[in-house]
Each structure stands twice: as C-alpha cells, then as structure tokens.
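Would you mind writing out the residues of a protein together with its fold in token form for me to study?
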Amino acid sequence: MVAMALLDYLARGQTAEEEKPLLIETDTSNPDVWKAYQDEVKAVTLNLDLAEGWIELVNVCEREANRTVVVNTAARNNEGVASHGDILQSSLEELGREQVTWWVINEQRDSLELLLEYMERIKGRVNVVKNLHFGRRFELYDGSTRVRAEVERRGGRDLAFPALAGRVAHTLYSRRLTIAKAAHELALGERAEMNRWRGAFREAFAPLLAEPVAA
C-alpha cells in the first residue's frame, strides 16, 4: 500500500510520459502492485533473490535516468539484500542516484530487528513508516535509541502512514485498482474515504517527497 501511495503521489498531475515514475516490482510471488499499475506507469518485474535481478535493476535505473524509480519489495527482501545488495550500492554514484528506503514497521519486534539488519548492509537514507493499519502503539520503535539514532544519522525520519477503511482497501486489492481509478470509480462513500486517505498521505509525506528522490 505504501508503494501504491508513492506511485500515486509521484504520478498525480503528470501528463508527460517521461515524468511519470517507474515501478520495479520484486514481489514475484504476489506482484499485486504491478498488476494494478502496469497500465498507468511503466512497470517491470525483477527477481531480487538472484544476482541477475540486481544487475538488471541497475541497468533499468541507467536506461530510465529521468524517472524516479519506486521499488516494491517482498517481505523476504533481506536475504537478497545480504547476498547481492552490493551490486546496487556500488553503482549509485555512477548512476547519479540516491537510494531512499521507506521501511514499513508494525508493533512487533521483528520489524525493528529486520530494519537493523538491513541498515547494517545498505547505506543511504531510511525513512521509517509507522503503518497505522496495525494500530497506533509503536513503543518499541519510539523507545529504541539505537534504531532511531541510526535513522536520524542518515537523514531519515519517521512518519505515520494513515489507515484506509478495510472495505475500501479490500476493494482496491480485489479489483486491482490504482488509487487514482478508485478515487473516481468507487461508490460515493468509498470515494470519500479514499480521497480522505489520499489527502492524509499527501499531507504527511509531501515534505519528504518534495526533496529529490531517485529510488
């Protein structure tokens, strides 16, 4: 959902094809973001469990130098990062891109442990996204001096990702709609909720998204 919201924000109001973001879908077992957005933005699928996928990721970023790249990753991405992440890391300077990670957390300890493991291997800015779908209690992150200090040292922030009503989220996924289509095609009540959520996302995330972001 965070990837979809980022794509919606970056594509909204853009008419020239070269200005729209590029989606790289790496959740090959369940490419739901790719299925929804393949007709709205340029989109490719890559397997980042394999070195070949990381090589092609770098090549795509080079070919699409004028596009912001949004990479949607699977929950298991740490294994691929550990094995092959250096392929991307070593190419960023030549690509002239900054890698910015939007790391979604819930209330569980494992989301913080995986984040620490990720930051030990990957450089660059990391923004922590508190997904309010899972509730509003994030004491483990708020009380984690080590994690928060590292996020802040890299220039990252923590943000609250607004919850979307369950019936609207279910319709979005089951019909494989983009956020823009859902905001126009759903019944009036659902559209009102979608537009409320869309506005809340823009208000919370716009200050960061206004900064230059490459991936």
